[in-house]
Structures are given as C-alpha cells and as structure tokens.
Design a protein that fits this description.
alpha+beta, elongated
Length: about 70
Amino acid sequence: MPKMKTRKCAVKRIKQTGTGKYLHNRAGSRHILTKKSSKRKRRLKHDGDVKSTEVNRIKTSVPYGVR
C-alpha cells in the first residue's frame, strides 16, 4: 500500500494541540480593522477550535498529523 498524501493547504492552516485537538486561525483579522472594535480584534487574535463535525475531514486530509 503506498503512502497517503498530505493536503498541504490543511497543514498550513491548522495546528494540533498536545491533547490531539485541532485549532484554526480566525477569519477577519487581516484588513479593514478601523471599523472593528478593540474587543473584537482582541478575540480574533486567538485560535479557534475546529468543530467536531469537521474533525474527520481534517484527519483524512492530514493522515500523519500536523508537525
């Protein structure tokens, strides 16, 4: 059986915690920041959890884990 290929786009966008959870970057923190409140921008800094419904898709696209 040949090795499975890793989807590089998923590896670049996702981090894996020590417990095995996946984190993703939040959208909306790159530009047009003047109209966003400080509270909103502060919350956009932190990584978000990947939803449980999406975890199976990530596991298939990153078969050998993230780094």
